[in-house]
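[Automated response] Your request has been received and processed.

Submitted sequence:
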Amino acid sequence: MVRSVKKFLIGLILVIGIMLIHSKQISSKKTLKKNLCRSFEDNFHKDKIVYIEDYDGNPKCANWVDVSQARGAYSIHSGKLKAILHKPKGVQGRMEDEDGACNTNIGKGLDLNSTYMMHYGTVSVEMKANRVGGVVTALCLMSREGDEFDWETVGEDIKHAQTDYFYKGAHKTGVDGIIHAFPDGGTIDSDYHTYTIEWGPNRTIWSIDGITVRTLERSSNFEDGIYKYPNKPSYIKLSLWDGSGCNGTAKWSNGPINWDESPDTHLSYIRKVTVTCNPKYNKVVTDDDDDELSE
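Generated structure:
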C-alpha cells in the first residue's frame, strides 16, 4: 500500500512538472512578438520624409526619417529623389596620413532611415549614382546591434558596385566586402540600375538589375561556436556621403574630394524603392492598413 502511494505521488509530481513546463512554453510563445515591418513602394511622387527634429516616433507618419546632419540634403521632383552632398563649411582640412591624402572637414549629405525596421525580406532601389571620386552612394540594412548589409558605389570606379556585410559591427577586410562589375557592362551613372538585397534567415542574395552577383550562406559563417551572420531587425538606409575621411576611408572611396576645385554640391538620384517584408518573421503592415499614408 505504501509503495503504491509513493508511486502515485511520484507520478503526480512528474505530471505536474510536465504541465508547468508546457505552460511556460505556451506563455513564452504568446509573449514572443514579431517585428513590425511595412511593405511598400516609394516612387517619390510625394514627399514622405520627416526631419528627425520633427519626428514624433510614430512610424506611420512617413516612409523615411531624415537623419542628415543638416537640412537641404534632398529634394523631390518629377518622381525622383535627388540626394545632395554639400561642401563642408570652412576649409577642407587636407592632410596626409599613412593611407595617403584625406580631409579632416567632411561634407554633409543625405542620410535616410526607414521608419519601420525589417527582420528578413527584400529591398530594391533604382538608383543613378555619382561618379566623382570620394562620393559614396549607398543602400544599407543596419541594425541597432551593428548587423549590416550594404550596396555601395564609390566615384571614379564607375564600372563596379560593392557588396559588404557586418556582424555586430565586426568586418573582415577583403573577405566580407566584394567588388562587382555590372552584368550589362554599364556604369554607376550612365543609367538607373536596380540594386537588391534579398535577406533571409539562411542566406542573403545581392543582385543588380535582377541578376544575382553574390550569395552569402549562413552555414558558411560558423566561427567560434556561433553563426556570425546578420540576423537582427534592421532599418533600411539610403545615403550619399563624403568618403574623404582619414584612416583609409578616402583611399577606399577614391577620394578625397578636392572641395577647393569641386562644385559646391554632388548629386545622386533615386526613382524607386521597393520593400517586401518576410511575413514569417514580421507582422507586416501595408499601405492598405495605413490610412495616414494612403490619403
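Summary generated for your ticket: Confidence is low (pLDDT under 50) at residues 5-10, 12-21, 23-30, 291-295. Residues 2-31 form the longest helix (30 residues).
If you did not submit this request, please reply to this message.
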